[in-house]
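[Backbone geometry]
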Amino acid sequence: MAGGGDKVPARSSKGEVDAFLDQIARMPAVKAADGRGRLIFALDATASREPTWDRACHLQAEMFQEAAAVGGLDIQLAFYRGFGEFRVFPWINESRELLRRMTAVSCLGGHTQIAKVLRHAIAETRKARVNALVFVGDATEEEVDGLAQLAGQLGMLGVPAFMFHEGHDPAAGRAFQQIARLTNGAYCRFDSSSAQVLRDLLSAVAVYAAGGRKALEDFGRRRGGAALQLTHQVRGG
């Protein structure tokens, strides 16, 4: 559910995107023991996200397609909605299956459950290496100190959280930024006018997790835009 509060700028600024790219550029690319990257992709599926859900599903599936082209990324889809519902799917490495699962999910009113996302990422990492957590949401209705404690644990395990913030809720922005900071991850806000930027940044994160700097440079040359900016920063990092 989306919250209210103080006003923030109506759309993502170039400075916010640049800061996000700079944070990714400073991160080492850690590969799993078998050479494949592993990424947990968690979504807020509460009612406030329903207007943009279908479009977001296709953008996020494109992220997987780009990473799949590198040949080394497994993704686990998780989401929350309704009255305490939190679901996690098995690990997959096929973009059409990811899209099928995502489009089968409908949004349902309820409170946020970001703590469950963080606890799951911690538990999964303790079983086998996870390279990154990507989260897409628009609100938080949970106690920030508790989220920060869990984020710190995830950071100690070496799992960066990439927090994509849809909309303008300032409380969510502050919480998401803290989670990103405590996990050595990155934060970026987006809205309906920045779908292209979201697609490129999601894809860049996935490609980087799957194939490291060389794969990201190749992707940046093909895609341009925000992905190319990230490539330039990685080269200089």
Notes: The first helix runs from residue 14 to 25. The first strand starts at residue 37 and ends at 44. The CA atoms of residues 125 and 157 lie 7 Å apart.
